[in-house]
Amino acid sequence: MSDKPKLAMYWASSCGGCEIATLNIHEHILDVDAVFDIAFFPCIADFKVKDVQGYPDGYIDVCLFNGAIRTSENEEMAHLLRQKSKVMVAFGSCAYEGCIPALSNLTTKDATFNTVYLDNPSIDNPDGILPQPVTLVAEGTLTIPVFYHTVKSLDQVVKVDYTIPGCPPEPHQIWAVLEAVVAALTQGAPLPPSGVVGAGSVAVCEECSRKRDVKKIKRFYRPYEVDPDPDICLLEQGIMCMGIATRSGCGALCPQVGMGCRGCYGPVPGVTDQGAKMVSAIASVMDVGKMGEIDEAVLERQIEAVYDSIPDPAGTFYRFSMAHSILRRTRVAGNGHGKE
């Protein structure tokens, strides 16, 4: 390789959308190519793990690591790339907070395997065979990564210097961060402070043009059940919108087209648990009466009725942040302890 700075990108437990999103920076990809040599990017070229193992420590200038940590291989690669990289970036929601993979923390490893390999109408597995880390065959021993009981975010495994939130991150975020790194490497400019970069510091509501009239609601609706007013806050129309508990920076893209914010940029700065913040926000728009004005039992039933109109509260409030939440995972009989 040349003397140009080195860029790496890795795909752990995720859908792969973050890898493809890097192409959305359009012509700036030529700027990246002009500045960096690609040291590791198995999604687009035939790199091997032994290539990374052979690099000196700190050889890679910046690593964009996307995906959650749910297998032993994910964790091993996180440690290896951290060792070989000067700057480690949690790239996208899965690396940042666990995202969709971490919703399996609501159940057990055994239950997940049962659904995927056994109790599934599209599976033909009459012998009930499940993947095993080690399998002896005539040709020798086959090994595959260990499937962990609990999905973790990248920063729960290794030190992370920067986080770019989003599912996937927006092109302007990606380029803003890469541009800052390029300027630091080529012009001696200072890198931004560690933390979340390329995103805002207020709630999505602050960049949403919809009007908030502090209306009260008696229930929530699925998007197909109502025709929302294009000018009024979706949450106040009974459509679930996580914007009040979610960091800005996306331009409120989903609310602008009538879909509630799903929360992929993570919690607003200063908020520890995005789901708990959302539960509090919902309480403020419920039209269920006030304590002291109606019977307490009636009030409790009315509150439950509002929450019952949310089809999947856990999956709604923690769709992106389960691994980083106070919960981290549910307590299940026989959980055990440790990675599995």
Identify the notable features of this structure and list them briefly.
Rossmann fold; 11 helices; 28% helix; 340 residues; 3 domains; two-stranded antiparallel ribbon; 6-stranded parallel β-sheet; single chain; 14% strand; globular; disordered C terminus; alpha/beta
Written description of the protein model:
- With 340 residues, the protein is an alpha/beta fold.
- It folds into three domains: 142 residues, NADH:ubiquinone oxidoreductase-like, 20kDa subunit (Rossmann fold, 3-Layer(aba) Sandwich), CATH 3.40.50; 41 residues, no CATH class; 106 residues, no CATH class.
- The protein is 28% helix and 14% strand.
- It has eleven helices and ten strands.
- The strands form three sheets. It has a six-stranded parallel β-sheet, sandwiched between helices. Strands 4-8 form a two-stranded antiparallel sheet. A two-stranded antiparallel ribbon has the order 6-7.
- The two termini are 39 Å apart.
- The relative contact order is 0.13.
CATH class of the largest domain: Alpha Beta
One letter per element, helices H and strands E, the order comes to: EHHEHEEHEHHEEEEHEHHHH
* SS content category: alpha/beta
- Which CATH-level-2 architecture of the largest domain? 3-Layer(aba) Sandwich
Helix amount? 25-40%
Q: What is the average per-residue confidence, as pLDDT, rounded to a whole number? A: 91
Low-confidence segments, given as residue ranges, are 335-340
CATH-derived topology of the largest domain: Rossmann fold
Distance between the termini: 39 Å
Largest sheet: 6 strands, parallel
**CATH homologous superfamily caption of the largest domain:** NADH:ubiquinone oxidoreductase-like, 20kDa subunit
Instruction: Count all strands and give the number.
Output: 10
What is the C-alpha radius of gyration, as a whole number of Å?
23 Å
> Overall 3D geometry?
globular
